[in-house]
Amino acid sequence: MADERFADDRPDDDPVTEATGASHRSGEPDAFGSPYRLLSTAVTPRPIAWVSSRGPAGENLAPYSFFNTVAIDPPVVAFSPVATAADPKDTLANALETEAFVVNVVTEDVVEAMNASSATLEAGESEFDHVGIDRAPSARVDAPRVAAAAVSLECRLYDAVEIGTSTLVLGEVVYAHVAEAALTDGAIDVDRLDTVGRLAGGWYASTDDRYELERPP
Question: What is the pLDDT of residues 88-106, one digit of tens each?
Fold first, then answer.
């Protein structure tokens, strides 16, 4: 019996059938396990925002791989926790209340600590203390940063947009801290910044196997 989740009854002249051919399977997002599984495995590798924040219950540190740069002028980054204002997790609650957070970039030397910080803790227990990683003060926002992070971006809340059960949190970067070891002539050197990307499940990707393409004029 054909799996009704997949569109296998299109006519031969259907444009999608012509484009994908017999080597592809087509269907709604939930036909591929779940929408989350489809997106988290197809959209890879994803950069990781290791977000530090401060709120009434203390300091929080949590990783988010639904994250990227979204604008340059003003400089804005965004991450998306599966939470809403009606039922926020610590990071979202802190960002909404203080309008401040820090995005710490995840590199090979801190990836184990980043993973450990995703553990479920008791209320009021800080991931900084649970992981045993040092804090450093920020210059412009009321939130700590990860002292060992090669790059930390201090952010002020630019906007927060609820999308279903998630919230897209946009932060304007107002100050940055970059390790000297990651710089060449005052700019970040991709060859000296070993960032880590998220794949699916417990899988990650390093960025030490790189190649360069010349952009066409």
Answer: 889 999 999 999 999 999 9
